[in-house]
Amino acid sequence: MPLDRYPSDLSDAQWKLIEPLLPGPNTGGRPEKHPRREIVNAILYVLRSGCPWRYLPTDLPPWQTVYWYFQQWEQAGIIEALLARLRIKVRRQQGRDDESPADVIDLRGAKDASPGNGADGRRWFGLSDTAGLLMVVANMAACG
Q1: Would the pTM count as exceeding 0.85?
Q2: Taking a C-beta distance cutoff of 8 angstroms, is the pair 52, 110 a contact?
Q3: Cα–Cα distances in Å, from 17 out to 64, 80, 140?
Q4: Calpha distance 3→55 (Å, rounded)
Q5: Which of 78, 77, 144, 74 is nearest to 109 (CA)?
Q6: Is the pLDDT of residue 144 over 60?
Q7: Which element (helix H / strand E) includes 135?
Q8: What does the pLDDT read at residue 87?
Q9: CA torsion, points 12, 58, 81, 33, in degrees to nearest 10?
Q10: Mapped to the 3 state alphabet, what secondary structure does 25-77 carry?
Q11: Phi–psi pair at 136, nearest 5 degrees
Q12: Strand order in the sheet with 122-129
């Protein structure tokens, strides 16, 4: 599978940072069908483009698979921990303290028309630090 198909795809250096932070594959079940890097690239595609899960391009893993991984990792706190570790790494490279003294809320929600989200769908919101580094991603029901 060719890499770097989309601007949101991870570079080799980015993947090298992220891969060890992800949980290992489950043992005892069927082998994973899609490489973890492709799953992460698909998640980043959705988050960056704002497209609904069902609109993932067909050269990425199936949207149901990508959505399942995202939900599992989100519920287990893996995504928040991943963002925190990467944010600290970047802040250190910039000569900043590990933690930001202030935060900025990004209220530009991206619509998510995932199954079961109702007619109004859901919205993604981000919380970033003063350097613009993402701290938290929230998925909430859209109102009206």
Answers
A1: no
A2: no
A3: 26, 15, 29
A4: 19
A5: 144
A6: no
A7: strand 134-141
A8: 78
A9: -80
A10: CCCCCCCCCCCHHHHHHHHHHHHHHCCCHHHCCCCCCCHHHHHHHHHHHHHCC
A11: -145, 145
A12: 103-112, 122-129, 134-141
**SS3 state of residue 84:** helix
Residue 136 in contact with residue 126, Cβ under 8 Å?
A: yes
In the numeric block, which tokens belong to residue 75? 């519920």
Structure tokens at 133: 């580094």
> Rounded to whole angstroms, how far apart are CA atoms 42 and 67?
9
**25: Cα separation from own chain's centroid:** 18
Give burial (CB, 10 Å; 0-12/13-18/19+) of 88.
middle
- For tokens 């290992």, what's the residue? 24
Which residue(s) pair with 136 in the sheet?
A: 127
Give the tens place of pLDDT for each residue, 67-126: 999 999 999 988 888 878 877 887 788 887 777 655 555 555 455 555 554 545 666 666
16-36 pLDDT, tens digit each: 888 998 988 777 778 889 999
